[in-house]
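Model it.
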Amino acid sequence: MTQPSKNGENAVDMLAVARIAQGVDIAGFAGPDAVKLVAPAKVNLFLDIGAKRADGYHEAVSIMHALMLHDVLRMKLAPGRGEGLSVDLSCVAREGLAMLDVPVESNIVAKAVRLLAEKLGRTADETVVACLEKHIPAEAGLGGGSSDAAAALLGAAHLWGVPADDPRIEEAARSLGADVAFFLHGGCACFTGVGDAFDHALAPMNGNVVLVKPEGGVSTAAAYRAFDEHPTAISEADREAALEAQRAADVPLRNNLVPVSEHLLPALVDIRLWASERADVQRVLMSGSGSAVFMQCATFADAGRVAAEARMRGWWARATMFGSARAAVVPNR
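Modeled.
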């Protein structure tokens, strides 16, 4: 969630904007003291939102599947500024995406780094310098921010010499958001509780996917408020089938946030109907609370054609594939 900027943050934001305008120095992250990570997108094959609990959260069953589409996060350590931990974050928007309009300290990458330092009891005077390349659109239900946070946790742990399986990393992930923990596992997995508790892994798929997003987004908070006013139930049979599925291919595509999100952003209806009428689209469903819709296609050629025609209609679109990826350190080159 975007928060109002605090005193002193605007100067840092202006610095980040200036770096973006000039082109971020990616070469500055090429040395052995830097780490490079991938942060994959996801879609919800199944999302069953239940009643609101006393703590304000909703019970949820969420089966998520990673995609090959991913953001790239580069990180390194630099001398401190005499104020403990500092986070110097710059962002680059790819894929025709708009620039992120979020104060640095409110960006979930910075929050992740600070939270892990707190859980580790790390008090060193140091600067974590990070550059985030965004390929995943925001407010799309594709988990871009959550995946970036998971990558930031792993990247900070790597820089600080903390093993990737340290339980404090997953503790921090669950504190940051319901989807963040998924990206530490990747592939396809079922989460219960409020959507943050790992239940079991499913055998992932390798099929072709088209992501289509209209202009504008759906606020998760607005979608849940609307859902509380007009809840929609998923059948018990579908819920049992989803929970019993051991392969992603066997999961029934269901999402009971679709009606309220389509009401909040009617362009989602246009995308769903357009996709449903196409012979080259096998299945279609909105991911998360929106506003991206994913479509399964038999071949990558079909997916590319669907994406191209979606872009001609003025929608953001990208052909990609399901995968077994997770947030992870990759060779830095």
